[in-house]
Structure formats: structure tokens, C-alpha cells
Amino acid sequence: MVDKNVNISPLAGKPSGPGLLVNVPKLVTSYYTDVPDPSVAAQRIAFGTSGHRGSSFKKSFNERHILAVTQAICLYRKQQGINGPLFLGMDTHALSQPALASALEVLAANGVEVMLAENDEYTPTPVISHAILTYNRNRKTGLSDGIVITPSHNPPHDGGFKYNPPSGGPANSSITDWIGAQANAFLEAGLQGVQRVLLEKALNASTTHRHDYLNAYIADLGHVIDMDILRGSNMKLGVDPLGGAGVHYWGPIAERYGLNLTIVNKEVDPTFRFMTVDWDGQIRMDPSSAYAMQRLIGMKDHFDLSFACDTDHDRHGIVTKSAGLLAPNHYLSVAVFYLFGHRPQWDLRSAVGKTVVSTQMIDRVTAKLGRKLYEVPVGFKWFVDGLLDGSLGFGGEESAGASFSRLDGSVWTTDKDGIVPCLLAAEITARMDRDPGEIYHDLTRELGGPVYDRKEAPATPEQKKILGKLSASQVKQTDLAGEKIKAVLVLAPGNGAPIGGLKVVAENGWFAARPSGTEEIYKIYAESFQGERHLDQILEEAQMMVNDALKTPSEAGV
Fold first, then answer.
1. What pLDDT was estimated at residue 496?
2. pTM of the entire structure?
3. Which residues fall within 8 angstroms of residue 526, CB to CB, at 6 or more apart?
């Protein structure tokens, strides 16, 4: 959701023009020729909430970064005794192919068994997680792990690099901190200590293998989604892969399970020229943005239900006839309501996982279901252990990322999966004879109708550090928008982990403030169950608290 107070670009929602398209040859040339300066913070390797991201144009994502971080991963594997195959995949961003080549050169030189996609196919993030977990099932030794090369829904000039340990999900901070420190040491040493062979030798190495990711994942979908009810419904479904890594998955899914599914765009183009422009004038493959989703929204009446995924297919966007594009918070609430009522084999003790900045509607739905709520900091890594051991039946975050258990209650993926929430929306519609938009409307009549917003503002690294260490004692106010403050949180209620900011909660509203883990901005999230005016008041008071926290000692009168 975009803050209604920011300046929306006049290009937002319109087709992208030639002036917006990335120069792919120039971008790739920069990847190979530009040298990052490790003394400049922005040019070092830094793992945010979802891996290391950057652009070769900014010297924040190029060949040296990938060589260094891959060698660091090889050292980590050796230290931890991880000696099974490494599942390696990439999305359709222009920098993903060069980064995969660089990574493979290092992995082969280190003797790592690598699983590459057959026919050099693109590989969605959840498919890598699924492959790791499938391989590791019932194993105690010789465990596998993976690397996903993707900056998710970020603009076409960006690249990204994620490590998934044997748990199958995003690596936790202790792992990424260690890998990042080793990788930056390699950068500082001019890559001394990095082992590497030529790409041709790496591709032909005895340790490099091909893996049928596509069919292994698709064949298993019937164990997480009730495909029989979809097959029998003959609903007209539409999907827009947004030019992403799952572009060649949807056709085989429809064929295997007998779905009446139309792929509205099969094009893969690293400039993503087919996208409509996002709110800030950039091309961004965000399925939760109405500006980026204009094509599919415009086609909503052609289908009973339609959906889209971002570039690495770990996020979902659901378009209904009744309500158009659903806000992620709305659909997550519906998914929780439906899943815990229609998965009889799930453990009655399995909990609902949400991040601290996700809607309080999930809290209310969870209470209605008589389930336990597990609230964690931002980042899907916090759900990994619970999804793995079954103590969580569902984990979701407000940025349209989610995964949930198989029909029998066992683990499906421990990373975000954009594909199964899309198929779940179809299952819900087929079984309930109502689309998720209609079901959400019913929930609001019973539990209240929240309004939600998120503000973003530029922040220097120093300001981000201050915001990340806010304390409850810094909140002097006793009321929030006319209601008594019930809690000021700096630790997540579910697992006691620092939320990297703070959350202030009242009876009918809350806000959370935290620095971004991947961009030079901070974010204020807010929600009210008393309407837009109340929400505006919460946001205004939240902004004042953040401004106070960011004051220098002299500005604060110290």
C-alpha cells in the first residue's frame, strides 16, 4: 500500500516508455568492469531482510560481490559440515544470469555439488526451498542448501543474492552476518583467497548436475492445494507472471491439474517494458501494487478470479471480481480464516504466524478460530523453524509473502511461496462459491473494518541505526489518537526477538516504525479500526514520535 501523502508520479499506472527502460548491455558491462570500494558502506555486501541487493550502476551488486559472497558461503558450508548438493536458481532480472555464472565458477572451484535447472530454466524462490526440503527429508547427514539469485520485485536495474541453509528458508541473521563479514574481508583483500574456475569448466565439472525443478514442484502441488475441487469447478482463471521466474510453470500446472487457466502474458524481457509504472515512476514487478497491476485489474471481469506473482514468484497478488486487487492484509486474513477451517489433518495446536506490521485483523480472525497467534519481526526467516516443525500452520507478512502447511500438516516450503496462495484463492472460491473479496467483506462485518497505510521517508544510515534501536522509554505519550496506549513493543510478542524499531498499540489502532533492511528509507506502518480520520491522526502522532527520536542532541536541547 502506498502512502496517500507522498507524491505519486504522473507516470504511475501508465505503460512504461522508452525513457524508463534499463540499458541492459550497459548494466551487464558495469557488472563485470566496475570495482566496488569496500571503504564505502553502500558498496559493501550487506544482507537485509531478504539477501544482498544492489545495482551494478551503483557498484553495490557486481562480479566481485558475487565471487566474494559465494566463496564465503563455501567456507560456511565447510564449517557447518554441509556437504550435500546446493540447489542454485535465478529469476529473470538482467543481472541474475551473470551472477549465476559467477557463483557457479566459485562453487565448482570449491568442489560443491551444484544442481542447475534443466534447460537453464528460471527457478522461483519457493521451488528452491521445496527442492532443499524434499532432498533433506529423513536425512541427518549430507544435507543440501541453496542460493536464489533475485532482488524479488525490485526494479530491472537491481540484482539480488539469497542463501538458504538446510532448513530451506532464508538464512537467519547469525548466518548472514558471518557470511557478510567473510565476503567483505575478501573484497578488502582484492579477492585473495577466492577460488574460481572458468565458466566452461564449471559447467562441465563432475560436480555440476541438472535438476528438473519444474516437474518436481508441480507434481507435488496436489499435496498442498485441493486440486480435485479446482479440476471440477472449471472456473475461468487468469494469471500474469509479470515476466518472472514462474512464467513457464503456469502452463504445465494448468495442464497437469486440468485447470481452465489463461496466461495473459508469457513475455520475458529484462527491461520489463510490458509493465505499467509503479507509484514512484519506476518499473517494479510488485503484485500488491495497483499501479503495477493495471493490466490484470483491467481484465478482472474476464475471469472468475485472477492473480499474479512477482519476479521470483515468492509474492502474490489476488484480483477478484467483487473487490478488484485485494490488499495483501485482506487476503492474508481470508487465507488464515479458510485454511484453519478446511484443513482437518492440521494439528489443533498449530499457530498462525504474522509479522508485527501485518494487520490486526489476523489477530481477530485467529482469536475467532481459537488458535494461537505467533507475532514476529519483519522478515520471513522468523517463520522458518515453525513451518519446518509444524508448530506454525501458516506464516504471512503484509508485503504479500506467505507459505502454509501441506494438506496433512507437514511442511511445504519454509520460504515465501507466491504460487500456492494464488492457487489457494482459486480453491477458496471454488469451495465457498464466494471469492476472497466477498469473504473479507463478511469478516469486516463481524470483526470490524480496518484501514491501513504505510509511509516511507529517506533515512541516512545513521538515522536508520537510531530507529533500529528505539526503546520503549522514548515514548512519553500515554495516548495514541485519543486511546490509551496498551503496549509499546520493541520485542516481538511471539519470539521475543528485537523488531528493529518499535510498535505502539491501542485498542483500535497501532503503528510501527522501523528502518528498511534493503533501502535507505524508514517506514511507518499504521492501522485503525475507526476509519480514515483516526488513521490520519495515528500517522501524524507516529511521525512526531519518529521526528523526536531522530533529533540531534542540539536539536533536542541537550
1. 97
2. 0.95
3. 452, 453, 454, 455, 509, 510, 511, 512, 535, 538, 539, 542
